[in-house]
């Protein structure tokens, strides 16, 4: 039972209004990228000395917080409450997607857990039922059930599939050693409706995106953490056709026609160069 949860980038991210419940409505295009964690699940032997229903082992990139509250554990508990027949399990999560980066690694892991448990233990949940349960775990979790390009509204849970392909482009990802609190990022934002919707902008050639496709978090996050803004500018100076911060940060991504020696340009930072 092995699955490889993908990361995502945001092609445009506009915070359009504050909701009465305190959350914000947004508009964004989610695009999956082949930067993956690895999630393995094995049934636990009856005599294994563990009081919990699931036993989590983490490896790879360090993850902060109590393992008992990890999203993969919460995903297991969500289905265990509904399907008591689920056995106790061992979970091994190897992290390769940078954390606190705006790339959805935790959300992707949670959705992959739902998919894996449903498939292996034949729970009979439909794709739509998985999406509904994923929404209980996080706003962008539903996207990762399908993990295909989509335009998102609401808090990120209302999805419309998009016929969008970046095949052939090289994706650079740089994550500065600066964590950005999502709560803080939202607190600094002033909601506004964009002049043009990101769904329409991504239908244009990539060469036109830089002046049109905006992440509303960038202004306030770059002011608080100048290093992140400097990474974006350096990527553009290196020849990127488009560059932006993903989500509320702190990862910055860029589209190149050819690969570049990324680690040489950004030592001491997480970097990845990926062929799409």
Q: Can you characterise this structure?
A:
Helix content is 28%, strand content 28%. It has helices at 71-82, 105-120, 127-135, 141-146, 182-187, 198-201, 218-224, 226-237, 262-265; strands at 2-3, 6-18, 24-36, 38-43, 54-60, 89-95, 150-153, 158-161, 170-175, 242-245, 252-256, 270-275. The mean pLDDT is 93. The chain contains nine helices and twelve strands. The chain is globular, with a radius of gyration of 19 Å. Helix 1 runs parallel beside helix 2. 39% of the residues are buried. The two termini are 26 Å apart. The chain has 276 residues and is of the alpha+beta class. Strands 1-4-6-5 form a four-stranded mixed beta sheet, with helices on one face. Strands 2-3-7-8 form a four-stranded antiparallel beta sheet. It has a four-stranded antiparallel beta sheet with strand order 10-11-9-12, with helices on one face. The longest helix has 16 residues, at 105-120. Strand 5, helix 1 (71-82) and strand 6 (89-95) form a beta-alpha-beta unit.
Short descriptors:
276 residues, alpha+beta
